[in-house]
Amino acid sequence: MPWRWLLSVTTLGFVALAALSFARPPVAAAKPSPPAETAAGDPQLVDLAGYKDLVAKYHGKGLLVTFWATWCEPCREEYPMIVALSKEYGPQGLAVVGVSLDEDADLGLVRQFLDKARPGFPNYRQRPGIDADAFYQGVNPDWRGTMPQTDFYGRDGHLARYFVGQKSKDVFVQAIRLILLTGNSENRSGAPLPAGN
After folding, report:
1. Which domains does the chain have, with CATH numbers?
2. How far is CA 90 from CA 11, 62, 144, 145, 146, in A?
3. For residues 117 and 110, what is the distance between their CA atoms, to the nearest angstrom?
4. Using one digit for the tens of pLDDT, what is the confidence trace for 100-156?
5. Bond prior to 148 in cis (omega within 30° of 0)
């Protein structure tokens, strides 16, 4: 009978050990998942200082920055053209960057939009909670938040042209050629180009 008692105790010990092993979460599951805003592939958050650093990073190239949002229909309509222009003029020295003005609540829509558009250039997102008006003014003193907004920087890093509202491909090409060919901001009137057809 002692061997039955020993067998019962041993069996209970194995059952208890197995129960404890299954009750503990695996080590990998114990790590918290990253917040939604830092998930792989999401646009990096940018404030005004970060934006200025971003523009400085492209010094020596012509830079087109498009400010867009998923809730802005003209932005969504214009974006594929900007993607095509990026591919066409990239080999000539044009850099393109997108900045989404979407809120955290629209991050899922931003992911879907970028996944569908496959821009091939970096996109950022305005940091939530910052003073939006100060951001607009810091980017371009004449910008009041109307979208789409497109800024063109000469190779010297200065704002050469900007557009407020949706424009035609021909108007974009004219501005791109200006920043690529002249390589400076001699024509810095800051006035928006006339609406294209």
Report:
1. 39-181 (3.40.30.10)
2. 70, 9, 29, 27, 27
3. 10
4. 999 999 999 999 999 999 999 999 999 999 999 999 999 999 999 999 999 999 999
5. yes
Q: Tell me the three-class secondary structure of the chain, residue by residue.
A: CHHHHHHHHHHHHHHHHHHHHHHCCCHHHHCCCCCHHHCCCCCEEECHHHHHHHHHHCCCCEEEEEEECCCCHHHHHHHHHHHHHHHHHHHHCEEEEEEECCCHHHHHHHHHHHHHHCCCCCEEEECCCCCHHHHHHHHCCCCCCCCCEEEEECCCCCEEEEEECCCCHHHHHHHHHHHHHCCCCCCCCCCCCCCCC
